[in-house]
Write a structure and sequence with these properties.
- It is a single chain.
- The radius of gyration is 19 Å and the shape is globular.
- Helices cover 43% and strands 17% of the residues.
- Strands 5-2-1-3-4-9-8-7-6-10 form a ten-stranded mixed beta sheet, with helices on both faces.
- The longest helix is centred in the N-terminal third of the chain and has 23 residues.
């Protein structure tokens, strides 16, 4: 197996989700720090347009979206499992809720004035404005809750997490599942990045104890590498052979067609390439970059829009 290269930045909550999964599975990885906001020329050399954080690179294969990245890591290291068979469906449904509904409520609370000041207060005013403008451009169909309303929702969701935990160490039993990692990262952000807003957690001792257990599972630190080196890794490699060749055609678009894929709710920047796989769960596009060479960009089907490019 080629080394795992994670393109991320330290305060990214979704990157923390993947870092924690890598620690849980005790997988070594390399760390490429990317800018928080556009432009991201070295990342886009690999993805062709996708700019959300994080991205997982394995040789000349580029995996986008943490839902897909988690599946990839599960395939590489099946144990301990993120998807125990007895709760797999429930774990995936809870994870999808956490990555959307819980996440946006948490972020609306976290970026109330005190939280935003903690993140950007020691920097020039234009830094915070640039971040806000960048994220506004990424929103397609994500409601923007005012901080008081986000706090109301977030407090309710924390109560639900506490109730779900009960006297269990993790949400669905004795070991963490994908549901725990998806619920963990927005609450991690509250506790660690915008700690000025972390008082909301004090009314939920079960959640705080669970956060401690999740931290013990261990987000690991990868060995640093430069973005140019990661691009060279892709250029020197070839995409891995596709192991799932079943073609699920829901669009009337043939394999080999030139297509674009973009996020349906967040991240409208399209990635274009030749459609070389469309399985039950993912798309794969082949594309060529002058620096990265020929790469396969993999995206999940759920949450993304596929269109033919004339």
């Amino acid at each position: 197996m080629s080394e795992l290269i994670l393109h991320h930045y330290p305060s990214s909550p979704f990157a923390e989700k993947v870092r924690a999964i890598l620690g849980f599975k005790q997988l070594p990885w390399r760390s490429v720090h990317i800018p928080q906001i556009m432009p991201k020329p070295d990342l886009l050399a690999l993805t062709g347009g996708y700019r959300k954080t994080p991205v997982l690179q394995i040789g000349a294969d580029i995996y986008c979206d943490t839902a897909l990245i988690a599946d990839v890591l599960e395939g590489l290291q099946p144990q301990p499992s993120l998807y125990p068979p007895e709760v797999s469906g429930l774990a995936r449904m809870l994870a999808q809720w956490a990555d959307t509904t819980l996440f946006w409520a948490a972020m609306g609370h976290n970026f109330a004035p005190a939280g935003a000041a903690q993140m950007f207060g020691k920097q020039a005013p234009e830094v915070g404005k640039a971040f806000a403008d960048d994220r506004a451009k990424m929103r397609v169909a994500v409601p923007r809750l005012p901080p008081p309303d986000a706090t109301v929702a977030y407090r309710s969701y924390l109560r639900r997490l506490s109730s779900t935990l009960g006297d269990k160490p993790f949400l669905l039993g004795e070991q963490p599942t994908i549901a725990d990692f998806a619920c963990y990262h927005p609450v991690w952000f509250t506790q660690n990045v915008t700690s000025a807003m972390a008082g909301i957690l004090n009314d939920h001792p079960a959640v705080l104890a669970w956060l401690g257990r999740m931290a013990q599972k261990g987000a690991t630190r990868g060995e640093r590498m430069g973005s140019e080196e990661a691009i060279e890794v892709a250029a020197q490699a070839s995409p891995a052979a596709l192991t799932d060749t079943h073609f699920q055609d829901d669009h009337g678009i043939a394999l080999g067609s030139w297509v674009s894929i973009k996020g349906e709710a967040f991240g409208p920047e399209p990635t274009e390439g030749q459609l070389v796989a469309a399985t039950r769960t993912r798309y794969t596009l082949a594309r060529t970059d002058e620096r990265a060479g020929t790469v396969h960009v993999h995206l999940p089907r759920v949450g993304y829009i596929l269109k033919a490019v004339q």
